[in-house]
Here is the input.
Amino acid sequence: MDSNTTLIAAFLGLLEGLTEFIPVSSTGHLLLAGHFLGFESAGRTFEVVIQLGAVLAILTVYSARLWAVFSAAPHDPQARRFILSVLVAFLPAVFVGVLAHDFIKTVLFETPLLIAVMLILGGIILVVVDRIAPPTTEPDAMRFPLPMALKIGVIQCLAMVPGVSRSGATIVGALMLGASKRAAAEFSFFLSMPTMAGAFAYDLYKNRDVLDASAMGEIAVGFVMAFISAVIVVRWVLDYVGRYGYALFGWWRILVGGLVILGLWAGA
Here is the structure.
């Protein structure tokens, strides 16, 4: 792995960690950055596997809270219901992800214009929903009703189109179902753990034949950078959205999507 490739892998890992837990589409940003930098991993595995760094970041930040929940589960019905709500929300992604994996990776991941359009459309939706979301009825992410969790899980499946954003889809869905802005982000965090870990494991299995030593070097660099930057973002984002909402992220999506379309039009 040469120094230029190392720098690109480090930059993409940093980008992954900074964007994974905010509703701007980390995968969309990674694929578009890779397109303009001329970076392409075998089977697009790099872009999926480095997300494990972000998963470990959120496990680190929430380790005490998760330990408390799982420790209480044998005797606390509320803790068991919370665990079940996350699993229920995770199931639709398992079903759709397995069925559509090859189409997503070979077609949707290779279409920069689609990603840019999804960034813009998602940005518009985020700005609008941030203003018109119904009054809060569910202020606690750990007490979402199971039907609500399932609906959020179904909405999450839209994020399999790169540029939509997993966190963006789950946050918009939760807001429209009555979650507070902070609770919507927090439930998205919890749901990301099984979703991203499952995507990592399945993608690694599907692409086990195309991985080589050089690819593992790139992944290791991206993984470390994703972990470090994601820890910083997770500690910051809940307070930010609780105070200011999601409009900034919507406008960022619109700006990036517009610039990408201009770049593609110019032949970049």
